[in-house]
Amino acid sequence: MAYKVKLNAFEGPFDLLVYLIENARMSIYDIRVSEITTQYIEYLNEMQRLDVNIASEFMVLAAELIELKSKMLLPHAPVSEDGTYEDDPRSELVAKLLEYKRFKAISEMLRSREEENRRIYTKPQEDISEFTDSPDEVLTLSMPQFAAAFNLFIEKKKKVQLIQDHYQRIERQKISAEQRAGFIKSLFVLNGSEAVDTGRVVPFNDLVPDKNDKYDMALSFTAMLEMIKQRRLTAQQASLFAEIFVRATERLNKEENDNDQQTLD
Q: Which of 45, 157, 242, 253 has an alpha carbon 20 to 30 Å from 72's alpha carbon atom?
């Protein structure tokens, strides 16, 4: 069976050996030394063919594997009562591999902890001596003074609760700019007709239903600017801070006529 060598970055000879054993689905306690030795040497030969520098520890382990392979070819020692070899040549290699895997697992855990700690940011310690070094302030009150302060607290709490029980704050629902634009458009509609009077001039104050409400004032002004931008209204102002006069355009009149036509259809 042909063996395909795939070069990976291994940290050392035992890293390569563990990879070969796991890739061959072998038990680390029952290593097929001959097969693993062949794969290991083929990997080193492939590295040499690709002109990759091989560290000396890779060659040392290769020599140990060849020696172990030769020992496995020799007659084994007598079998013990439990059916195992009294002196397995692979026992030393197995012990080294188990120790390597244990240290590798620990190093992976430490590397993971290091990456997690890099994502943790701590706040520098602050100087709180200003608060810790100052003595505690003790409120000195006589018993009648303390009782009077407590009674005052209870009375204020009762008043707040009484107000909450008998009164409810009602907030006026705010209307949108589109709704205010509809109100402005209705001011130019002729009486008894759906047509818009383009000759009618309306002062800006008439566009504000509640002239004492700043929100209404700002909303009407915003809606007027938007309708001017859409060329549905025109506005004139004789001088700075003078009254603004608004007039409907033919586009607004055309919108009303189009709406009437769609209603008839």
A: 45
Tokens 């001596």 correspond to: 129
What would be the CATH architecture of the domain defined by 177-264? Answer: Orthogonal Bundle (1.10)
- pLDDT greater than 70 at residue 18: yes
- 218-222 contacts, C-beta under 8 A, 24 or more apart: 219/175, 219/177, 219/180, 220/180, 220/184, 222/177, 222/180
Q: Where are the domains of the chain?
A: 13-75+85-117, 177-264
Specify the residue for token string 């509640």: 210
Q: Which amino acid is at 214?
A: K
**Residue 108 is inside which H or E element, if any?**
helix 91-118
30 and 57 in contact (C-beta within 8 Å)? no
Q: Are strands 233-237 and 244-248 parallel, antiparallel or unpaired?
A: antiparallel
This prediction's pTM:
0.36
- Reported as a single tens digit per residue, the pLDDT across 54-104 is 677 788 888 888 878 887 777 665 555 555 555 777 788 888 888 888 888
For the chain, give the number of residues: 265
With beta carbons less than 8 A apart as the criterion, state whether 57 and 116 touch: no
d(CA 256, CA 264): 13
Q: Please say whether the beta carbons of 248 and 207 come within 8 A.
A: no
Identify the CA nearest to 199 among candidates 132, 245, 134: 245
